[in-house]
Specification:
The chain is mainly alpha-helical. It contains 21 helices and 11 strands.
Length: 499
Amino acid sequence: MKIIKVNILLCLLALVLGSCEDFLESRDKGQVLEEKLFVNKEGVEEAMYGLYYTIGAGELWGAQLPTIMDALAQYLTLGTYSTENSGGFEELMLHNHESERSTTLFGGIWTLGYKLISDVNKILENLDSWGYKPLKHMDLYRGECLGIRAFMHFELLRMYGSCNLSKRGIPYVNNYGMWVTPFSTTRECYDKVLKDLNEAHTLLLEDENLLTYPRKPVNAYDQFTSYRELHMNLYAVKALLARVYLTRNEPGDVDSATMYARQIVDSKKFPLPTGANVGPDHFIRMMSGTVAQDEGIWGIYKSDTYSALQSLFLLEKGSFLAADEKMYEELDPARGTDHRSNWIRVPSASTPEVSEKLGMRLMKLINASVFNTANKEQAPIGYSGSNIIRVPELYLMLAETLIEKEPTEALRYYNEFISSRGLNTEESITKEDVDKQFWREYLQEGQYWFRLRRRQVPEIEVEPALANAKGIKTIQMDENKWSLPIPDSEFEFREDGSY
């Protein structure tokens, strides 16, 4: 027993003396969910960190998933475009979902998403039958698990499920085991997502005090309550509730979405940049391989985002470029300067020749100081990782949902947002204005395709280089285009081969 106590004290001392990054590094690893973990709080927390590791995997929010969704939304083009070096991405961008490239990518997301859900259910099963020393943070553990389970199901639902509430959704898996879970309708899936989120909301109320602004320093003696923006926290759950209600759009849902969005924005825990921070340097540093220090409601810690992203965006040939290099330019200089333009720029490389060769690149998520160690002044601010939910979404949601009922309030939220991006305030706005700002804000974050899906736009304009190469100007959207294909393997163990 003395040896155990000494070891614990040594660990705590090392944590106190070490840097915050060192502590976070110790969490950045995968963990097999074994029975031996679930005997004490250290084991439970190790399993919890394993969930976040999976969310940040390259196939999910670490790199591929947002890029795939942006390709579908026609945000991207392939450098030195040709069908020979495209790796099949042109079929993905054209919404030819049955192509080999598309089915491989979509199948990987589906499989890893349900593995995450299985791991969540394993933890919940052990927490529900807990027979060891009482856990101080039982509510936080369960709340985070339920929030993650709802989040992953909702993401899969709005990728693979039907837009029609009465048609096929996805299997909503809330038990750990090998049996086959039947498909639920889209409406039933929404009900189950909301049930999990509402329970998570109740369990995570402690975050009202734990997640503050300015952020609290790390608590070396109670590590799990530190860095709450890197956990599925109360405000992430509120943001998800707002997303889900706005997407479902049943009677009363818009009001519910507005309520939760207001709670987050009005909490002032996730401030937009103001004053000296509204400038080009801040917009280079706030998103470059980091969880946005102030605006990040929830992000995933990853010690190295650069290696996962550089092959997607920095190769001389074949990497993705912005479909519209000038998307942040204003025709009227009087409207101000959009500092998000620094998210598409010529990277500052070790030599001018390399920079010139690369040309304009998507640099929003790239750590410029890793790309070139001479770029010290462009080092990120915040913790290394990937953003999942940022507060601009909620400002724009409020501008959209209040534009008819409370136009003055809608304009206030909209102006607060665009001012933080360097643009001058407006005297009136339309839903098209809000949509334009969302389009500008969420490049490389995989959210705009879901916005198009929610609005059920009848067609999507094909990215110009691809349109010229294929002779296809627009994609006519329908149920099959909006619902990505579920892997064939999902139906192997169903008696009639169907859902």
